[in-house]
Specification:
With 446 residues, the chain is α/β, with parallel strands linked by helices. It has three domains: 83 residues, SRP54, nucleotide-binding domain (Four Helix Bundle (Hemerythrin (Met), subunit A), Up-down Bundle), CATH 1.20.120; 196 residues, P-loop containing nucleotide triphosphate hydrolases (Rossmann fold); 136 residues, Signal recognition particle, SRP54 subunit, M-domain (434 Repressor (Amino-terminal Domain), Orthogonal Bundle), CATH 1.10.260.30. It contains 20 helices and eight strands. The chain has an eight-stranded mixed beta sheet, sandwiched between helices. Strand 5, helix 10 and strand 6 form a beta-alpha-beta unit. The protein is flat and about 75 Å long. The relative contact order is 0.10.
Length: 446
C-alpha cells in the first residue's frame, strides 16, 4: 500500500472534475472543495485543520486570477499543493546540533509507538553523516526494553549505555552524559519509557530527565496509524514537555494520513522524521513539499534519486554504463541490478515516487521478482552471458531447478531482449538515466 493511497485517490478524483472544465465558476470551486473536505476528514485529518485548510484554498481559488486563467483546474491543484506544504511546515526541519557537544536528543512517546527502534534509526542516520552517536537505555520498566536497544545498537554498530542495576532513569540519563563526554560521543539518543496512555507519573519522570539532561531536542515518536488520536497525544506531550519535533512511525502501513497533516498545525512543532518500514534503514527526513507531492500523486523524484544514490555502488554503475555502451549487458548484470534496486525498499514504494505512477495502478508482484531471481540463478554462467544458447531442453532444466515454468522463462528472456534493445538506444553516446533531475545525475539500468 503506497503512502496515503486512499487520500491520494480521492483527491485525484476531485481534481479530475476541475480539470474537465474549461472554465470554472465559484460554484464549481465550492463543489470541488466539498469533495476535498470529505477526503481529508475521511483521512482522519483534524476537523479544525480541515476547516481552516478549505477556507484558505477556497479564498485563493475563487480569485479572478484563477477563475479567468486558461487552465483554472491546474491552478486549483497548484493552490492545494502550496497550502498542503504550508500546512505541514513549509520547509524541512533539521535536527538542531548543539554548538557545545554532546547534542542530547530525548526520545519520548507512548508505549508501542516505536521509540526504541527509531532512536536507533535516527542514530544510524547521523552515524552515516560522521557523528559518533550513543544510545542510552532509560526504559527501566518494560521487560526486555534494554535488551531490545542493545540488539538495535549492535545491528547498527552503535554503543549502548545501560545500567541494568539501577531503576532510576533520571540518574542513568545524567551518568550517560558524563560517559558520552569522556568517550567522545557527540550526539546522544535517550530512549525513555512509555505508558499505554499519558499519565502524571510518566510526565513527571520525563520532566525530571529533561531537567538533568537539558536536551537540545525532545522528539515525540507517534504512531501514524493512530490517526486523530496521534494528534491528541502530540498535544498532551507538547503541553507538558514543550517538544521540539515529531517522528511519525508506520507511514508504510494503511495509514490515512491524518496525523501527518494535523500534527504541525495543532502543536506548532515540525515533523522531523518519518519511519517507513520495519528495517533499521527505513527512516526519512520529513520534507513537506515532497510529502505534498506524494499525497497529490505527483511522485517524489528527489527522494527517489537520493535513495538510488545510497543504494547504487558508483563503481558498479560505471561498469554497467560501459557494458551498456558496448551492448554487453548480461543476465548476471540484470540480477545485480535487481539486488541494488531491492536496497531502495519495496518496489511499490519506489514506484509510488515516480510522477504519474502513484495511483492504484501501481501494483508490483514482489513474488514475480523472486521467481525471476530463481530462474537466473538456475542458469549456468555460460547461459547467463549468452541467453541465445538456451534451447528447449535447457529451459526445462532451468524450470525444474527454479520451481517455475517454461512459459515464465520464455517471458523473462523476451523481456531481457527488449530491455537490451532499449538500453542500446539509451546508451547512444552517453547513458544518463535520471540525469538532470533535481540538478543531480544518477545512473540506473531501468
Amino acid at each position: 500500500m503506497a503512502m496515503f493511497q486512499n487520500l491520494a485517490d480521492k483527491l485525484s478524483n476531485a481534481f479530475k472534475k476541475f480539470r474537465s472544465k474549461g472554465k470554472l465558476t465559484e460554484a464549481d470551486v465550492k463543489e470541488g472543495m466539498r469533495e476535498i473536505k470529505l477526503a481529508l476528514l475521511e483521512a482522519d485529518v483534524s476537523f479544525k485543520v480541515v476547516k481552516d485548510f478549505i477556507k484558505r484554498v477556497t479564498e485563493r481559488a475563487v480569485g479572478s486570477q484563477v477563475l479567468e486563467s486558461l487552465m483554472p483546474g491546474q491552478q486549483v491543484v497548484k493552490i492545494v499543493h502550496e497550502e498542503l506544504i504550508e500546512l505541514m511546515g513549509k520547509t524541512q526541519a533539521k535536527l538542531e546540533i548543539s554548538s557545545k557537544p554532546p547534542t542530547v536528543v530525548m526520545m519520548v512517546g507512548l508505549q508501542g509507538a516505536g521509540k526504541t527502534t527509531h532512536s536507533g534509526k535516527i542514530a544510524g542516520l547521523y552515524k552515516k553523516q560522521g557523528k559518533n552517536p550513543l544510545l542510552v537505555a532509560c526504559d527501566v520498566y518494560r521487560p526486555a526494553a534494554i535488551k531490545q536497544l542493545q540488539i538495535v545498537g549492535s545491528q547498527l554498530n552503535i554503543p549502548v549505555y545501560a545500567d541494568e542495576k539501577s531503576k532510576n532513569p533520571v540518574s542513568i540519563a545524567k551518568s550517560a552524559i558524563d560517559y558520552a563526554k569522556k568517550n567522545g560521543h557527540d550526539i546522544i539518543f535517550i530512549d525513555t519509557a512509555g505508558r499505554l496512555h499519558v499519565d502524571e507519573v510518566l510526565m513527571k519522570e520525563l520532566q525530571d530527565i529533561k531537567k538533568v539532561t537539558e536536551p537540545t531536542e525532545i522528539l515525540l515518536v507517534v504512531d501514524a496509524m493512530l490517526g486523530q488520536d496521534a494528534v491528541n497525544v502530540a498535544e498532551s506531550f507538547n503541553e507538558m514537555l514543550d517538544i521540539t519535533g515529531v517522528v511519525l512511525t508506520k507511514l508504510d502501513g494503511d495509514t490515512r494520513g491524518g496525523a501527518a497533516l494535523s500534527v504541525r498545525y495543532v502543536t506548532g512543532k515540525p515533523i522531523k522524521f518519518v519511519g517507513t518500514g520495519e528495517k533499521l534503514d527505513t527512516i526519512e527526513p520529513f520534507y513537506p513539499d515532497r510529502m505534498a507531492s506524494r499525497i497529490l500523486g505527483m511522485g517524489d523524484v528527489l527522494t527517489l534519486i537520493e535513495k538510488a544514490e545510497e543504494a547504487y555502488d558508483k563503481k558498479q554503475a560505471e561498469a554497467l554504463e560501459k557494458k551498456m555502451r558496448e551492448n554487453a549487458f548480461t543476465l548476471t548484470d540484470y540480477l545485480d541490478q535487481m539486488a541494488q534496486l531491492k536496497k531502495m525498499g519495496s518496489l511499490e514504494s519506489v514506484m509510488s515516487m515516480v510522477p504519474g505512477m502513484s495511483g492504484k495502478d501501481v501494483k508490483i508482484d514482489e513474488n514475480m521478482l523472486a521467481r525471476t531471481e530463481a530462474i537466473i540463478l538456475s542458469m549456468t554462467p555460460k547461459e547467463r552471458d549468452n541467453p541465445d544458447i538456451i534451447n528447449s531442453s535447457r529451459k526445462k532444466r532451468i524450470a525444474k531447478g527454479s520451481g517455475t515454468s517454461v512459459e515464465e522463462i520464455n517471458r523473462l528472456l523476451k523481456q531481457f531482449d527488449q530491455m537490451k534493445k532499449l538500453m542500446k538506444q539509451m546508451s547512444s553516446g552517453k547513458f544518463k538515466g535520471f540525469g538532470g533531475m533535481g540538478g543531480k545525475r544518477m545512473k540506473m539500468p531501468f
